[in-house]
Amino acid sequence: xxxxxxxxxxxxxxxxxxxxxxxxxxxxxxxxxxxxxxxxxxxxxxxxxxxxxxxxxxxxxxxxxxxxxxxxxxxxxxxxxxxxxxxxxxxxxxxxxxxxxxxxxxxxxxxxxxxxx
Amino acid sequence: xxxxxxxxxxxxxxxxxxxxxxxxxxxxxxxxxxxxxxxxxxxxxxxxxxxxxxxxxxxxxxxxxxxxxxxxxxxxxxxxxxxxxxxxxxxxxxxxxxxxxxxxxxxxxx
Lengths: 117, 110
What we know:
The complex is a heterodimer.
Chain A (H helix, E strand, L loop, with lengths): L2 E5 L3 E2 L5 E8 L8 E7 L6 E7 L4 E3 L7 E6 L4 E6 L8 E9 L2 E5 L3 E5 L2
Chain B lengths: L8 E4 L5 E6 L11 E6 L6 E4 L13 E6 L2 E6 L8 E9 L3 E4 L3 E5 L1
Parallel strand pairs in B: 1-9
Antiparallel strand pairs in B: 2-6, 3-4, 3-7, 5-6, 7-8, 7-9
């Protein structure tokens, strides 16, 4: 079955850049799916960050667009997230997700990122 | 973009029905039949329960149903069971284009 696995530093300094990677297994990123990042601050709700298609097409959350870049690496069957100028408000559990049409049907287990000096 | 509005909590006894509302705007829920619902028990990743307003993925019990009227979507859980206790989130495609989630609702089985 399709599995997603996030990886990246668990601690990022304020004003730094958060970089995460999601490795896809059991499916190809070149399938006709979109792939997204979603985050959840501790004890709070879900926030959609960005999506990408293997063709390189992207869409971003308007409130985060100026700080976010999403990319895909077909050769490694993975996609990535960069979020710059981070603050404590970016502390969250970050999920990578596969789209099924306009829904999110496969979720990674999530990776916790803390922004702290 | 603002989060979709959900009630913070709903509760019911086993066997009863509960309904969770999800209110958006004409830029999201009101314009697209692209509303989905997710169940998130504590400490776990969300699970897709309903897609495209009222469709259930394979394996989701038919006790879960969805609907939409205007700018408000709803999730109904009929015949409430103890394992249904969790947080529930709605999501909608928007005209940005982007996606927006709801504020989340905690379902408690009394």
